[in-house]
Design goal:
mainly alpha
């Protein structure tokens, strides 16, 4: 028997689809209520504003995707495999619960959402959680001799930046025609990226 969705879930689902397809700025509360099949007043019974809806979407569709990321640390596998699993989780969450570039730009430039203390705290907590897990993977790899001796904090910061840029090419495609004739950023394989992280540039 199919379980009926709650009005709260209907609102969130409708908002998520509208934000992606119509854009955050162009989506109004009335649009969300109509898409959810409920009254506008009912939306306000659950959420005080559109920004509040986005905060809940961040928590349920983004933050929750990393609930089990610390499980990687306790697995009986090598540090380089833990690093691969960490990257897999990042890629999976990015592709599973992502917003298009127009939505993100809309949100950053036109919305008060990123001035919401609760959202900022949630984002900071998620970043800190991921950074901590990656740091522990790097530190373990150095300690057991899998990785070269280096500052684990610097390595974690560098790898975090590399992962974020690798992922961002999918969200914010850049025309690299002026840099390289190939312009094949979309064809990068995760294995190539991981090989570069682990083995560097030297032969």
């Amino acid at each position: 028997m199919t379980q009926t969705k709650s009005k709260r879930d209907l609102i969130l689902d409708a908002a998520y689809n509208l934000f992606i397809n119509k854009g955050y700025w162009d989506t109004k509360i009335i649009d969300i209520s109509e898409a959810a099949g409920i009254g506008k007043g009912t939306v306000y019974e659950y959420f005080e504003s559109k920004d509040a809806i986005f905060l809940e979407l961040f928590r349920t569709k983004v933050e929750s995707g990393y609930d089990n990321i610390t499980d990687v640390l306790s697995k009986e596998i090598s540090s380089d495999k833990k690093l691969k699993e960490f990257i897999d989780i990042e890629l999976e969450n990015t592709s599973k619960y992502t917003f298009n570039k127009n939505f993100l730009l809309d949100l950053m430039l036109k919305s008060d959402a990123f001035r919401n203390p609760e959202l900022i705290a949630s984002i900071h907590n998620l970043i800190a959680k991921k950074f901590s897990v990656l740091y522990q993977i790097i530190e373990e790899g150095i300690r057991n001799g899998e990785f070269i001796q280096m500052d684990p904090l610097l390595a974690t910061a560098s790898i975090t930046g590399a992962i974020n840029l690798y992922i961002s090419f999918d969200l914010f495609p850049i025309n690299l025609a002026d840099v390289t004739a190939s312009n094949k950023t979309k064809n990068w394989r995760e294995e190539e990226f991981l090989n570069l992280l682990l083995n560097g540039l030297k032969t």
